[in-house]
Design brief:
With 182 residues, this protein is mostly helical. 79% of the residues lie in helices and 0% in strands.
Amino acid sequence: MTLYLKTLFLLAWSFLKVGFFGFGGGFAMIPLMQDISVNQYHWLTHSQFSAAIALGQITPGPVAIGATFIGYKVAGFPGALVATVAVFTPSLVIMCLLARFYLEVRKNPVTQGVMHGVLPVIVALILTVAISLGEPAVHSFWQSMVIALVAVLAIKNKVNYGLLILGAMAAGIIFSLPGMRF
């Protein structure tokens, strides 16, 4: 087997695992994708991984589309195709099975217990991702203050996310002006 085929196989296997163990949606997949692509195989740097996640956020569709970017960086178009199919296959199979049996098992105490047990883990993983992606992006005091303010406004006051993004952009412009260093 050539090195290129081994790389495609490794991409497929890696993103099948991400798709299978990424309980809780795309944000729960981010730590798994980061561990595989940055820490284990060194396919991407931390900044390239952050760019992949950012790209996934600005494009329509799920966060898991970051797998496409990673696959492309590793093995071009075939890598993108393999990583994308692999990351979505477990969800597709599980959803097909659940659609068939969900109404029968949704009230089952074991099913409820599994769901309640997985939820805190997902929250912790998302928080871990937010911190690991945010740390390299914060370079000044005012950025830390914007993070805190946006968090409070989003959580407590339920301010529209679009307005929060526009406000943060305005703060970035203002604090980037000459003489506005904090």
